Amino acid sequence: MQKQEETYVMGVGASAGGLNALSRLLASFNGTTHSFCVIVVQHLSPDYKSELTSILSRRCKWPVEEIENGCSIQPHRVYVTPPNRSIEMKDGKLFLKELPPNYKNAPSADQFLISLAKEKQQYAIGAILSGFGHDGTEGVRAIKEVGGFTIAQSPVTAEYQDMPQSAIDSGMVDMVLDPAVMFDEVTHYINNHRVLQSSTPRERSLDAIFELLAKRSGTDFSKYKSSTVMRRMDKRIEALRLPSHTEYYKMIRQNPKELDVLFETVLIGITEFFRNREHFDALRKELKLLLEEKRPGDSIRIWSVGCATGEEPYTIAMLISELLGENIANYQIQIFGSDIDERALNKARRGTYSAKSVEKLPELYINKYFDKTEEDQKYQIRKTLKKNVLFSKHDITNDPPFVKLDLITCRNLFIYFNNSLQKDTLRVFHYSLKENGLLFMGKSESITPASDLFVKVNEFKVFRKADAAKVYNLKFSRYNTNFGHSKTQDDKKTAVRNMSILDIAKETLYHANENPFVIINDEAEIKEVQGSLRLYLEIGQGAMNHNLLKMSNKEMSLEIRGLLAQARNSGKIQVGNVIKFSLFDQLHFVRIKILPFIYPMGEENHYLVFFERIEPDGSYLRLTEEVSTDDFTDHRILELEQELNFAREYMQMFTEELETNNEELQSLNEELQSANEELKSSNEELETSNEELQSANEELSTANNELRLSNEMIIEREEDLKMANREIIRNETLYRTISENIPNGTVGILNEFLEVEYLAGQGMARYNIDLQSVKGKKLHELNPSETERSKLHKIFSDTQAGQSCKAEFSYMDRIYSLHTIPLKLDEHSPTKVLYLTQDITEQKEFTNMLEREVSHRTEQLEATNTKLAEVNLNLQQYAYVASHDLQEPLRKIQMFIALMHKSLPENDKSLVYSDKVSRAAARMAALVNGILEYSRINEDEREFEVLRLDEILDHVAEDCDLLMQEKNARLSYQDLGEVRGIEIQMYQLFLNLVKNALKFNEHQPVIQVSSHQVQGDLLPENSDLDPGRNYNVITVQDNGIGFKPEYADNIFEMFKRLHSKDKYAGTGLGLALCRKIVEVHKGQIRAAGEEGKGAKFTIYLPMDK
């Protein structure tokens, strides 16, 4: 039965500006040969009815569905997260959860991507598009940790750069791309990943790569978890677009520097300050108990293994500082941070971190332990903390460990070791720790491979050293140059065939030796180690020392010193006496044998020092335990006599050496006396040149300091160049990828002769050409049109002269856009031309069609505007004539009513009707006057002038004085500022507003007029005001009857009345006239009110021309 293909899942996080990026991404989707689906996590407002699914459906060829709780994923589909829900993936299904009120960043990209990483592991793909904030960064970090693929939108193309830039800055992004090309890269990744997954896991070339990597880096990855290392290696192979490990091995053989890149790729330096806070809280409690047992002057030694960029050692230093407080100066603090990545250690030594790295730290810690740098806004560890932390390159699998430690922290390193290497490392930790020393491990790690060595302290991965019943031999490959994998049986057979019988005999004798030995020089410095020397040698505290005399047990130091001197003088094998010593509560016996090398190696002499372990039989041991006091005394006397005889021999040898040296010194003294006279005679000459030497010495000292500084700068520069070179390789790969995948276009470089030097892009396929067919040809001469050839030649020539150009040209039956840039690598190199073409035939045709349509619509609009202008003029004339013709009959009606009123007796009933007619005529007259005023607003051609609003309000108050006294009203205004406008119209505006406030009031009217100024960028939303101008905002507020809020917009309509004319007189034209005046002055008026609580009118009037 065929195994079901694993579905790749791409999680896409986006926020502000993400719709455009999502549209461009999904528009490129088409069929794929493997199972693959997309989950979109877009920040949305919880109150917003999302149309995202329908919008994306119109742009994507795949089905687009909104996620339902518990739905299973299907390949070749796009799933969209609904608003106000968080999303997680578990057991191949998607689960939605409601969010608490006012929750930001909903749904969370981090939350989903972290669950995706746990669920899909290496089949997870994370993409971060445009958006605010840092959401998604932790998610891509999680995907990167499990070997997935991560991409981010190029900040250059993102509307809002925060989210993609934060992901890029974390160093966890594999590729930075435009959304339009992401699908092609994801498809390419899936195809390559499938091929690598289906290949043989441990093919022969893979072993060869491991061996080369071990030889170059000094680190043997063969005991790391093979799945982890292979996953990292596969990512590098995928980035290089190579089909197999075999091809990658061939590339490494051709370019050994690729091993440096692979070494950095295999390493996963993921760390942070106080990672897993609750774990550090638990460690703090144990550290407090440990420090309480210390006394002033004691040393506190801590080792952080695999510290990467140093956050963990500095975290421990902060904890120690907080626990000891001001008493920290009374203790010797030594915190060692080690790693095999020199690049990460350099960053750790600098102690400079980004704002993102320290954002989770308490503000107190940031202020206390960091200095913020002004130039790049980063955070620098203070020297008071930094002085307690030392960083060193160290391979825990090879190098001798630090010893006499109080605490070892090794977090998230064991997850990359196989079981055997975990066991060996735990034995090293047990050896290095003091009694009751602590071991602090990662969240998902355990001591299971060597559970007898440590005792669990708490559930937060803190362990204490146990008293082990068994003593383990530790082997450090630092003294053994045999890195990498052991030879295969075939390799061994080949080697044996090339050996003589004497060589085989020598090999047999060598392997028959069971005693450990070291190779030393005349100074007793160890050069090589073979076998376990745990019983005989001890690694001391402090800096690493390889001197055999200083590392050997006290009982053997004198023995080795004497035998070495005899071997050095005689050149013969020296064998010592049996030495008895006690270790681990057991008696041990050893005999030292020293063999001088029969052939010299360079200028130094070398010696083999054998440690022959003596195993007494059982009867001897019982005899030793059961002898009487007298027998024991005799036995002890015998031992002391043997030691005394050896001491005498050593003293005799030492005396002979002294006598020999004395004779040599006497002869030398005579020579010195004769030379003394010569020195006296030359002394005067030396004194005369002394001043010259002193001055020269000062110059040399100055030059030496300058050279030392220059050397340090060169070293730093070399590191920068290495990093820059790696960046160039990555950028070149990215550039080629982008250039080769430009849709419907080409990118190329012309040399100084305008000949094709480089050409790439999918547009070449239309004309069946490639780089080799056109390389060295003048590009403009390839165009069949003479006109186009001349145009292109001029463009390229102008560009070569230093002028960038944008133009269009035709080739065959297509139209292309052309963008050229002068390319000059340095001042001595000739200027080349970098150009980009894009097929715009369809866009051009569409643009031409739009232009024709716009031209046609413009003609129609102009004709309509002409007709509207004529109609508007006729309406104005009609309003004016109609109003003027109505005034004369109205005056006559009013006059006759007045005469009739005088002629009728007082009690005549006709007087009632005549009063009604008189009032109707008065309203009619007011209406006609209002219409006349409204129609004249647009005809007023007076120029705008600077008006003081306080003076306008003075006139209004004066004209309304009687009415205000009648109503006992109060009008207040002060410092209203200035506006530009027509004075009479401003008077009409405020007169109408004040009269309205007086009219629609059933109590003592209080009218307040105030003003303030605003700039264009502070204008209210949904306004038609010009944001480039400054405005005077005048507010007229009263305590009248007010109005319902829903009438705030239509209150300004002509003839609009909210109350009956019998209760409140008026024409319904006042506020319409106000709005007309404000609009003529390029402003805006708004109304707000509430029944029984008054009305408020806000007027925006421009202050400048």
From TrEMBL:
<dbReference type="Pfam" id="PF01739">
    <property type="entry name" value="CheR"/>
</dbReference>
<protein>
    <recommendedName>
        <fullName>Protein-glutamate O-methyltransferase</fullName>
    </recommendedName>
</protein>
<dbReference type="GO" id="GO:0000155">
    <property type="term" value="F:phosphorelay sensor kinase activity"/>
</dbReference>
<keyword id="KW-0949">S-adenosyl-L-methionine</keyword>
<keyword id="KW-0378">Hydrolase</keyword>
<dbReference type="InterPro" id="IPR003661">
    <property type="entry name" value="HisK_dim/P_dom"/>
</dbReference>
<feature type="active site">
    <location>
        <position position="15"/>
    </location>
</feature>
<dbReference type="InterPro" id="IPR005467">
    <property type="entry name" value="His_kinase_dom"/>
</dbReference>
<dbReference type="Pfam" id="PF03705">
    <property type="entry name" value="CheR_N"/>
</dbReference>
<dbReference type="GO" id="GO:0000156">
    <property type="term" value="F:phosphorelay response regulator activity"/>
</dbReference>
<keyword id="KW-0418">Kinase</keyword>
<dbReference type="InterPro" id="IPR000673">
    <property type="entry name" value="Sig_transdc_resp-reg_Me-estase"/>
</dbReference>
<keyword id="KW-0145">Chemotaxis</keyword>
<dbReference type="InterPro" id="IPR035909">
    <property type="entry name" value="CheB_C"/>
</dbReference>
<dbReference type="InterPro" id="IPR050903">
    <property type="entry name" value="Bact_Chemotaxis_MeTrfase"/>
</dbReference>
<keyword id="KW-0489">Methyltransferase</keyword>
<keyword id="KW-0808">Transferase</keyword>
<dbReference type="InterPro" id="IPR022641">
    <property type="entry name" value="CheR_N"/>
</dbReference>
<feature type="active site">
    <location>
        <position position="135"/>
    </location>
</feature>
<dbReference type="GO" id="GO:0008983">
    <property type="term" value="F:protein-glutamate O-methyltransferase activity"/>
</dbReference>
<dbReference type="GO" id="GO:0008984">
    <property type="term" value="F:protein-glutamate methylesterase activity"/>
</dbReference>
<dbReference type="InterPro" id="IPR036097">
    <property type="entry name" value="HisK_dim/P_sf"/>
</dbReference>
<dbReference type="Pfam" id="PF02518">
    <property type="entry name" value="HATPase_c"/>
</dbReference>
<dbReference type="GO" id="GO:0005737">
    <property type="term" value="C:cytoplasm"/>
</dbReference>
<feature type="domain" description="Histidine kinase">
    <location>
        <begin position="881"/>
        <end position="1105"/>
    </location>
</feature>
<dbReference type="InterPro" id="IPR022642">
    <property type="entry name" value="CheR_C"/>
</dbReference>
<dbReference type="Pfam" id="PF00512">
    <property type="entry name" value="HisKA"/>
</dbReference>
<dbReference type="InterPro" id="IPR036890">
    <property type="entry name" value="HATPase_C_sf"/>
</dbReference>
<dbReference type="GO" id="GO:0006935">
    <property type="term" value="P:chemotaxis"/>
</dbReference>
<dbReference type="InterPro" id="IPR036804">
    <property type="entry name" value="CheR_N_sf"/>
</dbReference>
<feature type="region of interest" description="Disordered">
    <location>
        <begin position="675"/>
        <end position="701"/>
    </location>
</feature>
<keyword id="KW-0597">Phosphoprotein</keyword>
<feature type="domain" description="CheB-type methylesterase">
    <location>
        <begin position="3"/>
        <end position="193"/>
    </location>
</feature>
<dbReference type="InterPro" id="IPR000780">
    <property type="entry name" value="CheR_MeTrfase"/>
</dbReference>
<dbReference type="GO" id="GO:0032259">
    <property type="term" value="P:methylation"/>
</dbReference>
<feature type="active site">
    <location>
        <position position="43"/>
    </location>
</feature>
<dbReference type="Pfam" id="PF01339">
    <property type="entry name" value="CheB_methylest"/>
</dbReference>
<feature type="domain" description="CheR-type methyltransferase">
    <location>
        <begin position="194"/>
        <end position="468"/>
    </location>
</feature>
<dbReference type="InterPro" id="IPR003594">
    <property type="entry name" value="HATPase_dom"/>
</dbReference>
<dbReference type="InterPro" id="IPR029063">
    <property type="entry name" value="SAM-dependent_MTases_sf"/>
</dbReference>
